[in-house]
Fold ZF-HD dimerization-type domain-containing protein.
Amino acid sequence: MANGTAARSKEAAKVVHYRECQRNHAASIGRHAVDGCREFMASGADGTAAALMCAACGCHRSFHRREVETDDRDCSSTTSSG
Ligand SMILES: [Zn+2]
């Protein structure tokens, strides 16, 4: 899969990831239903308004769960299941 992720910078102290979309599409009817988007994907280039919109689900980036990855020198392997 060829995907242009942001170039890694050694100067960066922390990296921010935007994970699952948590927008409640059924809030207006008092229910809870998310669109199932697993990860934010910018629909436009960095610096443009489109960069804040998710290409997958169309929601604003702020609806996605923010995850800050601190640049600790802890070589822990990812043990995600599922
Ligand atoms: Zn969404």
User: Anything to note?
Assistant: Residues 21, 23, 35, 37, 54, 57, 59, 63 surround zinc ion (CB under 6 Å). The longest strand covers residues 14-21.
